Amino acid sequence: MKIRRVAAYGVCRAADGRILLTRGSEAAAFPGVWSLPGGGVDHGEHPDDTVVREFAEETGLVVRITGLRAVISDVTPLPEADILEHTDRIVYDVEVTGGELRAETDGTSDAVEWAAHADLPLLPFTARILGVRFDEAGITIGADEPVRSSERVQRFGAYGLVTDPEGRVLLARISEGYPGGGHWHLPGGGTDFGETPEEGLAREVYEETSQRGRIDGLLFVGHHYNPAAVGPEGRPLEWHVLRAIYRVRVDDPVEAAVTEAAGGSTDLASWFTPSQAAGLLLTELAREALGRTG
Fold it and tell me: Is residue 16 predicted with pLDDT exceeding 80?
């Protein structure tokens, strides 16, 4: 079985360089293993709010976000038989503003410490974020098995603020019948099971616009929640999309064209000057990203 989730975590450092870590309880998938504080994004919740909530629940501390550190993904075999879990993880830097340190009770962690992390057994993603070497097992992902889903759709996507050497911006128009139909959007979309955000973005940019670009940094993360969304089949979706937005440079632009692999959700792609783009019917994400082109 394949399952997917999106989670948010925080890196919180003490003045002496120690990191705040939590230990998995018997209710966790990996008891006794240490992790950055954090956890799953609730349906409709902004990941910024998730990390603040999870810190309060797991550590008793009130924190504020000071920066966006990374967006990563991994696939983990769970102890239950034949379950592969793909997790997209949004990792922030945070600092303590209040509260009192205490362990979580009756949850998925049972201890919290300011720790010299290299001396503890760490979850692989935590080791990766903290730069601790670990042995990463190879995982075989079956191509044909569908991902378990429900009526409440939570999706993770990677999108690009794509520009060329002339300063033009690349946009893709959403097909009618899809949420946001008729609006111009950033190229990108949902990542596949087992894909990193960077891999998914490169694939989506090519499928939707025929461009090959290079990722030049992570800009921001956001979300869009529409409990009244209706899909192309007329079925309510209770749509919640979590998004990582990257800056992408196309050094050798070609004529923008939608490829057959785009799957119907995009009906047109084009290059625009910033002034031309400002006059289009834009999604809120495209408007926000275009405000960061300076």
Answer: yes
**What is the chain's mean pLDDT, rounded?**
90
**What's the pTM?**
0.90
Residue 85: name the closest of 156, 27, 141, 130 by CA.
141
| 155-173: pLDDT as tens digits | 999 999 999 999 999 999 9
Q: State the Cα torsion 120-123-125-130 to the nearest 10°.
A: -10
CA pair distance 152, 138, nearest whole angstrom: 31
The pLDDT of residue 41: 97
| pLDDT for res 206 | 96
Q: What is the DSSP string of the chain?
A: -EEEEEEEEEE-B-TTS-EEEEEE-TTSSSTT-EE-SEEEPPTT--HHHHHHHHHHHHHSEEEEEEEEEEEEEEEEE-SSTT-EEEEEEEEEEEEEEEE-----SSSSEEEEEEE-GGGS-B-HHHHHHHT---PPPP----SSSPBP--SS-EEEEEEEEEE-TT--EEEEEEPTTSTTTT-EE-SEEEPPTT--HHHHHHHHHHHHH----EEEEEEEEEEEEETT-B-TTS-B--EEEEEEEEEEE-SS-------GGGTTSEEEEEEE-HHHHHTS-B-HHHHHHHTT--
For position 142, what pLDDT does the model report? 59
In this model, does residue 204 exceed pLDDT 90? Answer: yes
